[in-house]
Amino acid sequence: MLHRRDALFLAPALATALRRPALAQGERYPDRPVRLVIPFAPGGSNDIVGRVIADGLAARLGQSFVIENRGGAGGVLGSEAVYQSPKDGYTILLGGSGSFLISSLVQPKVPYDIIKDFAPVGFIGNAPNVITVNPQVAARTMPELRDLARNANPPLSYASPGVGTTGHVLGALLSLVFGAEMEHIPYRGTGPAITDVLAGRVNILTNAAAPLRPHIASGGLRAVAVAAPRRLDFLPDVPTTVEQGFPDVLSSTWYGLLGPAGMPQERVAVLHRALNDTLADPAVKQRLAEEGVEIEASPTPADYGRFIEQDRQRWQQVVTRARIRVE
After folding, report:
1. Taking Cα atoms as reference points, which of 199, 226, 221 lies closest to residue 133?
2. Is the dihedral of CA 53, 56, 60, 65 positive or negative?
3. SS (H, E, C) the chain
4. How far are the Cα atoms of 74, 129, 176, 242 from residue 170, in angstroms, in the given order?
5. List of residues 6+ apart from 62 with CB closer than 8 A
6. Rounded to whole angstroms, what are the CA distances from 173 to 100, 211, 268, 275, 321?
7. Where residue 15 falls among pLDDT bands split at 50, 70, 90?
8. pLDDT tens, 45-70?
9. What's the pLDDT tens digit per position in 153-166?
10. φ, ψ for residue 79 (rounded to 5)?
């Protein structure tokens, strides 16, 4: 993912962007509960982030935000439910780098276009991915991991939470950048992937930092790099890919809100302001930080939309070159 200074904040002055939008005279929005679709089962990071945001929106807008967990097809089923919903601002989506963007690139049949068929509301933040290895792997830096990958026979293996996930495409990106064949081992979720890398059955695992952090602290995993422009506050000793000479190896698990295309702009603006007010709340910042999420509020919905377009172009190149496709 591009850093906030490089991609996300391309907007006009904040004072203009954050003005409270004017609704039609006599109109109150929302005047009934809003449905927030999370395209994953309960319990994971997406669910936690979505519920924190839903609580914050409800407190600021005076209406309940009802969570609907709709997993399946790598996030496509939940995104499709929002795409097909009425364009009235009462059904919104917790979009993410894997469930919304990457799934649209690798799934064989996606019934929507993520640019044309959705209305961006606002960016929430991102959890930079960490590149880790089993301690038996003789690499402590990115150059050492590259050299090892180039000379490995059989090829080094990397685990992911599933085909088409952020972990999968980052592993594929490493293979391309290293100029080395690497074997992808997909799992059904992050937990089983971590288990097999800890056991030494797979060499490499890339993922958001939060689930990896206790294993890095215990020595069960060795952190080689943070795939981001700057170091993580709670892993200050782990250098970035940029520091180590790999500026193209950038990846994070990001989150944002979207609705179906055609939502009234006044309602998009109401949600955007409430979202940014929520993200400014110290308690929300603390809770999301516990999930490894670095908050990056977007000045306008259009900024978030531009970021999605840029990120899609970047990952499309990786998916095409690596021939990633869900069978």
Report:
1. 221
2. positive
3. CCCHHHHHCCCCCHHHHCCCCCCCCCCCCCCCCEEEEECCCCCCHHHHHHHHHHHHHHHHHCCCEEEEECCCHHHHHHHHHHHCCCCCCCEEEEEEHHHHHHHHHHCCCCCCCCCCCEEEEEEEEEEEEEEEECCCCCCCCHHHHHHHHHHCCCCCEEEECCCCCHHHHHHHHHHHHHCCCCEEEECCCHHHHHHHHHCCCCCEEEEEHHHHHHHHHHCCCEEEEECCCCCECCECCCCECCCCCCCCCCCEEEEEEEEECCCCHHHHHHHHHHHHHHHCCHHHHHHHHHCCCEECCCCCHHHHHHHHHHHHHHHHHHHHHHCCCCC
4. 16, 9, 10, 15
5. none
6. 19, 21, 35, 32, 9
7. very low
8. 888 899 999 999 999 999 999 999 99
9. 999 999 998 888 88
10. -65, -40
Taken in order 107, 111, 114, 119, is the CA torsion positive or negative? negative
44 token code pair: 């994971």
Asked if the peptide bond before residue 282 counts as cis, ω within 30 degrees of 0, the response is: no
pLDDT at 292: 85
* Structure-block tokens of residue 15: 């004072």
Query: Closest Cα partner for 252 from 233, 234, 277, 232?
Result: 232
Closest by Cα among 322, 4, 47 to 170: 322
What's the pTM value of the predicted model, to 2 decimals?
0.82
Give the span between the Cα atoms of 42 and 39, in whole angstroms.
9
Type of residue numbered 24: A
Query: What are the angstrom distances between the C-alpha of 190 and each of 1, 74, 168?
Result: 20, 13, 11
Contact indicator for 319, 166 with CB cutoff of 8 Å? no
Of 88, 73, 90, 83, the closest CA to residue 116 belongs to 83
Helix 45-61 / helix 282-290 crossing angle, nearest 10 deg: 170
Would you place residue 44 in the very low, low, confident or very high pLDDT band (cuts 50, 70, 90)? confident
